[in-house]
Design goal:
The chain has about 200 residues and is an alpha/beta fold. It has 7 helices and 5 strands; from the N terminus they run βαβαβαββαααα. The chain starts with a strand and ends with a helix.
Length: about 200
């Protein structure tokens, strides 16, 4: 069986356009002698902090089944924003003998050295995400101080409580569920109690 090149694209929201990533990856494929039409394209339109990424799940299954020798992404943070998740994903792929390419970072990852470099890059991406959350919290605190922040309406939830239950059934810890849903561990406990 001939192994094909896999291309993974993720945009953070439905409103964002994948065209920019697709164009640059297509150019990279042409420049490296690969026909873009021969590649298998996987596209997700979800944030990196959610575990619900069907295209990435299909890509992982295809790599596990030995269908791809190379996986190409626009940047490594398209694959994961969490350092642990990113390193685990790359370790899984490197162990399967898959070459991982990040075109904008000009990285070609394979083996132990590739995993080390990827670990540093994922740590930076995770730090950027935490910095963004801190700025958001500071903005909310400032708005509260001015009396203009009302918060969420009573009775509404940031995520679906049933989603927390499903993630728990898949074996995720309270901490992992909190990260996936973008809520606190206390909120996860409340969601699980509500779901039950």
């Amino acid at each position: 069986m001939k192994k094909s090149i896999a291309v993974y694209i993720r945009v953070s929201t439905i409103g964002q356009n994948e065209a920019g990533q697709r164009e640059q990856i297509t150019e990279w494929l042409h420049n490296h002698g690969h026909a873009p039409a021969a590649a298998t394209w996987y596209v997700d339109k979800h944030t990196a902090t959610t575990t619900a990424r069907p295209a990435l799940d299909r890509l992982r299954a295809a790599i596990f089944a030995g269908h791809h020798a190379t996986a190409v992404a626009w940047r490594l943070d398209r694959l994961a924003r969490s350092q642990r998740d990113g390193i685990n994903l790359l370790a899984e792929w490197c162990d399967a003998g898959v070459r991982v390419v990040s075109i904008t970072q000009q990285l070609d990852l394979a083996g132990v050295t590739g995993r080390l470099i990827a670990g540093v890059l994922f740590a930076v991406a995770e730090m950027e995400l935490e910095t963004m959350k801190e700025r958001q919290r500071a903005g909310i605190d400032a708005a509260k101080g001015r009396g203009v922040y009302k918060g969420r309406k009573p009775g509404t939830t940031k995520a679906r409580p049933n989603r927390a239950r499903k993630l728990r059934e898949r074996g995720l810890t309270h901490c992992e569920i909190a990260t996936a849903l973008g809520v606190s561990r206390t909120t996860v406990s409340r969601y699980l109690n509500t779901a039950n």
